[in-house]
Design brief:
The protein has 564 residues and is an alpha/beta fold. It contains 24 helices and 22 strands.
Length: 564
């Protein structure tokens, strides 16, 4: 039985040159776990906002066609009614948290509907979402993953049969990501909820979803069972979607006639174990990335302690006596679970936070003694949410702003060069907040390097991006050596870490628990377990086959594993 039925749906935003959704007809069965994939800008989020009535009741535009959600016509039903049919957790889920404590927030929607049992519904939702026992906690006491689960609980409390999540794990560490998907699986399999996720991480799609829907240029190319969908390697690649690394490796081996062409491509590590069982690992000629001779220390943390005040209970300690040096020329990745202190460390370096004890030194001088205008010439922070970097009406004006404010004479020419370098010339007159995810990232990077700082800090530079756009950002980072000497990224994107960084620092419990190359970090299983980090899937595939194998990319796996 279908819970969603769509006929000839077309939608255009005001003044848009062409429809963002173009003649979509689709059915979704009750109880499905559907992943929606497609490159940035193909209409995934717009499509989902049709399902809960935000389009066209709240977001205006030209709407054609018919959309039925659990029997209700979305054009004839208001947003409040549809919210009880299709719950939505947005990509920026923090904006859905509106109350100070956990139970207050989980039951708030039900209170708005004047439901007499609103508190009981909130408690039920918290239990379903794995937050039982946290009812009286303040929101600030939750981790990022727990906050995401709370946003989900707020939607679940209305007891909708459909739950829609836009990029549910984009900014989460692997442990929290597993927990989110574990809750979704329980809601789907034990409670009959129809789950729809917009997702770029195909390894999670392979492990949890039942069907995949590919969107291309505003339309639905196909909706298929998950295994069949992920095996369409060439078609997915054409749409800038990368199947699981295990699938990509097997696909290339079939082309090279190293595994039988008739064998179905594996989509999980467990399936890969059988597909690759006849191969053996050859470590000859493999070399790990090495860190070049460390340059002069440009940032030093000396016995730094920081804690955040809590409105309830004891203060949350982030760092307790932290010691660390960042050297000129480092391409350093800060990794660790949500709440490990990665963003806090960056804020300390640019003077947005001050340590309670200890000292943060920048170029040999205490950060606290340097004026903001001095710091901005030396170090720049690009925020996790790129839209926070935009304060003007156009991309060109945002890039020029800092240079213009400091009376840099040739700021116009420098702005043009940055627009060209970051492939933004065609968008220079657009509002940065209205760009696609990848375009916003590139624009925020251009703003960050406008003053040619010697140190660039990037907080989650590849979050919420499709794989192709992530690779584009990685190429941009590699090219930036000409602009800035030292780059530090805080990220959960282990593929970025393994392909880009020459030094990895692992944070856990307010301390640096590991500092080294990718081999030194990822072959130490104790570090990975303690910090809640996980190497790329292809690394795990290699380890299952041979614990000597240290393969971080598909190419390294293909080179390392040969027939016996």
């Amino acid at each position: 039985m279908n819970i969603i039925e769509i006929e000839n749906l077309t939608f255009s935003y005001p003044a848009a040159g062409k429809p963002i959704l173009n003649n979509i007809s689709l059915q979704v069965e009750r109880g499905d776990f559907l992943a929606i994939v497609g490159n940035n800008g193909c209409g995934k989020s717009t499509f989902c906002k049709v399902l809960n009535g935000l389009i066209p009741h709240f977001i205006s535009g030209d709407f054609e066609g018919k959309v039925l959600v659990d029997g209700l016509n979305t054009l004839e039903s208001d947003v409040g009614t549809l919210a009880c049919k299709a719950g939505y957790v947005y990509q920026d889920f923090e904006n859905q948290i509106v109350r100070p404590t956990v139970l207050d927030d989980a039951s708030f929607a039900c209170l708005n509907y004047a439901m007499p049992d609103y508190r009981e519904r909130g408690k039920e939702a918290l239990t379903l979402c794995g937050l039982y026992g946290r009812e009286d906690d303040y929101i600030c006491q939750l981790s990022g993953g727990q906050t995401h689960l709370l946003a989900l609980a707020g939607a679940v409390s209305l007891r909708p049969d459909i739950l829609i999540l836009d990029e549910p794990i984009a900014q989460l560490d692997p442990g929290h990501a597993d927990r989110i998907y574990g809750v979704l699986r329980t809601l789907n399999e034990k409670h009959g909820k129809t789950i729809i996720v917009i997702e770029h991480h195909t390894e999670y799609i392979a492990d949890y979803c039942k069907h995949v829907m590919l969107m291309r240029e505003g339309g639905v190319a196909w909706k298929l069972p998950v295994r069949e969908a992920l095996r369409r390697v060439e078609e997915l690649r054409e749409c800038n979607i990368f199947p699981p690394q295990v699938t990509l490796a097997a696909h290339q081996m079939q082309r090279e006639k190293r595994i039988p062409a008739q064998r179905p491509l594996p989509t999980t590590v467990q399936e890969g174990k059988e597909a690759f069982c006849h191969l053996s690992y050859h470590a000859a000629a493999r070399r790990d990335k090495v860190r070049q001779t460390a340059g002069k220390a440009v940032v030093s943390f000396e016995h730094v302690s920081v804690s955040y005040r809590s409105v309830k209970g004891t203060d949350r300690v982030v760092f307790d006596g932290l010691d660390l040096e960042i050297c000129r020329g480092d391409r350093l990745a800060l990794i660790g679970s949500n709440g490990a202190g990665k963003s806090t460390m960056m804020k300390l370096m640019v003077g947005l936070l001050r340590p309670e004890t200890g000292t943060v030194m920048l170029d040999g001088e205490d950060v606290r003694k340097q004026k903001p205008e001095e710091l901005s010439q030396k170090i720049s922070l690009v925020y996790q949410n790129p839209e926070e970097m935009f304060i003007k009406d156009t991309v060109a004006a945002d890039i020029a702003y800092a240079m213009q404010a400091r009376n840099i004479k040739d700021y116009t020419k420098r702005t043009e060069r940055l627009l060209d370098r970051f492939h933004l010339t065609d968008f220079k007159d657009r509002d940065g907040r209205l760009l696609s995810g990848g375009q916003m990232r590139r624009a925020s990077l251009a703003i960050g390097v406008a003053l040619h700082p010697g140190i660039l800090l990037l907080d989650e530079p590849t979050a919420n991006l499709d794989i192709a756009t992530r690779k584009e950002i990685m190429r941009t980072l590699s090219e930036m050596e000409e602009i800035t000497e030292t780059v530090v990224i805080a990220t959960h994107d282990m593929q970025l870490v393994c392909e880009w960084a020459n030094r990895i620092v692992v944070l856990c419990g307010g301390k640096v628990i590991a500092d080294g190359t990718r081999d030194e970090i990822f072959k130490d299983r104790t570090v990975a377990k303690t910090a809640g980090i996980r190497p790329p899937e292809i690394f795990s595939m290699g380890q299952v086959l041979d614990n000597r194998a240290l393969c971080y990319t598909v190419d390294e796996f293909l080179q390392g594993f040969r027939e016996v």
